[in-house]
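Protein modeling request. Please complete all fields; requests missing the sequence field cannot be processed.
Requester role: graduate student
Desired output: 3D structure, C-alpha cell encoding
Chains: 1
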Amino acid sequence: MQKKAEEERRKQEEDEARVRAEEEKMKRERKAKKKAEKARKEELRLAEIDKNVEVQVAIKTGAFFDSIEANIEKVIKMGIEAKGKKPLVFEPEPIVSSDQESSESATEEIRVRTGVLSIKEKRKRGPKPVLEDSPPMLTPTKRTAKMKSPAQPGTIAKLRYRNQVMEEIRSLDAQELQAM
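Delivered output (180 residues):
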C-alpha cells in the first residue's frame, strides 16, 4: 500500500511540475508576444511621425519656393537697375504640379525653361579705385626659429649691435648721411 501511495504522490508531483512548466512557457510566450506587439506599435508610431515630418517639410519647402518665385521678378529688376544692365526678359510660366508627376519630367521642364534664359550683355568693369589717403601696407617681419649657435655670447652681442647700427643707418635719408 505504501508503495502505491508513494508512486501516486510521485506521479502527482510530476503532473504538477509539468503543469507549472506549461504555465511558465505560456507566460513567456505571452510576454514575448506582448513585447513584439509593443515594438510593432512603436515602429508604426515612428513611421507616422516620419510621414508627418515629410508632409510638413514638403509644405514648407513648397511655400518657400512659391514665395521665392513671387519675389524673384522684383529682385531681378532691382539687380538690373543697380548694375545698369539691360533688362532680361523673364516670363515665369506657372508650374502645374501633381503628385503623379515624376521628378524626371519636372527636371526636364526646368531645363527647357532655363534654356531660354541668357545674359545679353557682360558686366563692364570700371577702373580700379585709387586710395590716396591710405598708408602703404606693412607686413610684419618673418620670425625664424631660434637655434643655438656654437659662437660665444660676446660675438652674438657684437652682431646684434652691428645689425642695430645698420638698421639706424638705413632709416636715415641722404642729407643726414652727408651730415655724418
